[in-house]
Amino acid sequence: MIWNTLTYTGWGRVHSATAKVARPERTSTLAAAQSEQSAPAFGMRRSYGDSCLNDGGHALDMTRMDRLLDFDPETGILEVEAGARIGDIARRFAPDGWLPAVMPGTGFATIGGCIAHDVHGKNHHGAGSFGQHVTEITLMNGGKLQKVGPSKGAKLFRATVGGMGQTGAIVSAKIKLLPCKGDVITVTERRIENLDHFLEALDNSQSTYTVGWVDATAKGETLGRGILEEAETGYGLVPDAKRAKSVPFNAPKWALSNPVVRLFNASYFRRVPEDGRTSVKPITEFFFPLDKLLEWNRLYGKRGFHQFQCVVPITEATVLRVMLDKIGREGLASPLAVIKRMGPGRAGLMSFPMEGYTLAVDFPNRGAAEALIAELEEIAKNAGGRIYLAKDATLSPAHVRSMYPDVAKFAKLITEIDPNGAYETDQTRRLNIRSHA
């Protein structure tokens, strides 16, 4: 197997790694690579921090293993290789009345990545997490194949889902697609005046898909204002999805300065009429809105950006006000801030979701950003919440045990499976995950 030296980053581009990377195309070549050197796998590298990095080591790029292997139209179960992208699956099967049960905010996420981080979507309050719709995973550890599922090999299955690739390379999986009404989606948007109204609207929503954009620069009586989107799939004729454009260069620092962001957010809030509006769109424009702007991470400049994403219990929702107040006063937020209502669904020992509210905010990588994020992490911890490891690049190792109470079980199992730490990444080393065994 050919190993090429590659310097690569996660989507946030704050951290980078230089590693020897192999790109297998078949299970046989993956086995050959693992027999030479067991190594952590990555896909499209849409995780934001350092969870896909292995600086100074080896890594497996799984993006060439992207085939659809089998589909049962009676059950909706699709067997697919780990490198297949969730957006491609949605575009292929929605016209036939099927959609992946759970989809993250980008269609470029691979199936392996969706499993490794047990991703959630705009329907978590009803459908739960991605791993709850996985019926079987084929793993390769040290060149040997193993099939696990919710009942057969359940212990290893729960360590793999949300397990950040620490149990071996995900080769393929069987996932259960859900029936949908078609390849278009009806979206209703309405303005929400402040955080209290936002939480009430999220709690009362009966829609299958619900997501809120928050103006993270708003203060005072308008703190937490934003736009609520509620959506249902359906049939109909809509214009073709717009062709994606690319950000050709790193944006200058002033492009996301506080005055510019405040003006943009005010305009974005007012784009929805006071009495709301309803429109019909291609499904991809609702589920993956940023994918139409390729390389949008360049908008944050060459130093990259952090995303802070937490979830806090329903009973601790008041801490969101504290967080948004701190964010507004610091003036560091970008226009990308999202709030959602989450249900209890999670499938893995290290899965992020819990019943409550999740807040995600992007910050350009500037001097005060990491200090602010550390304060926000502390608030989330004290509220009984947790930080999403797919987005994390800054979390203190001291917070892991309180945020992820099953970390000791997880660490014990992966240490038994991988005693030499061949599947460790920059993130698991930074967080000292295996020390909890």
Short précis:
The chain is α+β, with helices and mostly antiparallel strands and 437 residues long. 25% of the residues lie in helices and 27% in strands. The longest helix has 14 residues, at 369-382.
Structural notes for this entry:
This protein is 25% helix and 27% strand. The protein has 437 residues and is an alpha+beta fold. It folds into three domains: 4-61; 68-181, 2-Layer Sandwich (Uridine Diphospho-n-acetylenolpyruvylglucosamine Reductase, domain 3), CATH 3.30.465.10; 184-242 and 250-400, FAD-linked oxidases, C-terminal domain (Vanillyl-alcohol Oxidase, Chain A, domain 3, 3-Layer(aba) Sandwich), CATH 3.40.462.10. The strands form four sheets. Strands 15-11-13-12-18-19-17-20 form an eight-stranded antiparallel sheet. Strands 5, 6, 7, 8, 9 and 10 form a six-stranded antiparallel sheet that branches. It has a four-stranded mixed sheet with strand order 1-2-4-3, with no helix packed on it. Strand 8 (134-141) and strand 9 form a beta hairpin. The chain is globular. The mean pLDDT is 96. This is Decaprenylphospho-beta-D-ribofuranose 2-oxidase. GO terms for molecular function: D-arabinono-1,4-lactone oxidase activity; FAD binding. It holds the Pfam family ALO. Residues 14-180 form the FAD-binding PCMH-type domain.
